[in-house]
Amino acid sequence: MKGYVSIRSRLGRARMLFAGAVSAAVFALATLLPNTVFDFVFCRMPAGLAAAYFGAALDGSAFVLADGRIVAVTRACGGAGFFAMVCGLLAWRITATARWRFAPVAAVAAWGYAMLVNGVRIVATVWARSASEVLLPERLWGASHLATGVAVFFSALMVAGWIAARVPHAGRAQSNNTDV
To answer: What pairs with residue 70 in β-bridges?
Structure first.
């Protein structure tokens, strides 16, 4: 029995290392993109979603709210880190299910999910900033922005993990076992 646990724990560690390597590689590649490509891949889609929510006209990766405030989605808030984390989560899950042929589909789905979640984060951040300007001293407005982003991204990562855990293992019927 001890040998089984040891082999299983080694496989688990290897899967975690692989998923971490995928996440780090995706993040490194994203940061190496030129600004114009990064803006097109990571900033315009969430800015467009947020602009549509607020009924504002999109200008590149920025839009102007009805009260005149400009919201610009820059490289720092493009969501590349969240995309890398979702890719790592899916890589970890793909190694458990042995469904490598779905890796390209999973990468595209991770990008779409990251862009949707980042659009939601931008909307939430704009609302949090408006509330912060009324309720908090000016020195805490940045913290409000950060806390909103952490709450949205962490919640979305938990949802992605929950969804990924529902994918059945290859060659087995799906069960309630979420040991991945």
So the answer is: 64
- Asked if the structure places residue 173 within a domain, the reply is no
**Of 92, 90, 85, the residue nearest 107 (C-alpha):** 90
Domain containing 68: what range?
2-165
Q: For residue 71, name the pLDDT band (cuts at 50, 70, 90).
A: very high
Strand partners, 72: 62
The verdict on residue 176 lying in a domain is no
Please count the structural domains in the chain.
1
Q: pLDDT-derived band of residue 179, with 50, 70 and 90 as boundaries? A: low
Bridge partners, 58 (sequence order): 63
Beta-bridged to residue 63, according to DSSP, are 58, 71
- Amino acid of residue 157: L
Measured from the Cβ of residue 58, the count of other Cβ atoms closer than 10 Å reads 16
What backbone torsions phi and psi does residue 136 show, to the nearest 5 degrees? -120, 155
**CA 61 and chain centroid, separation:** 18
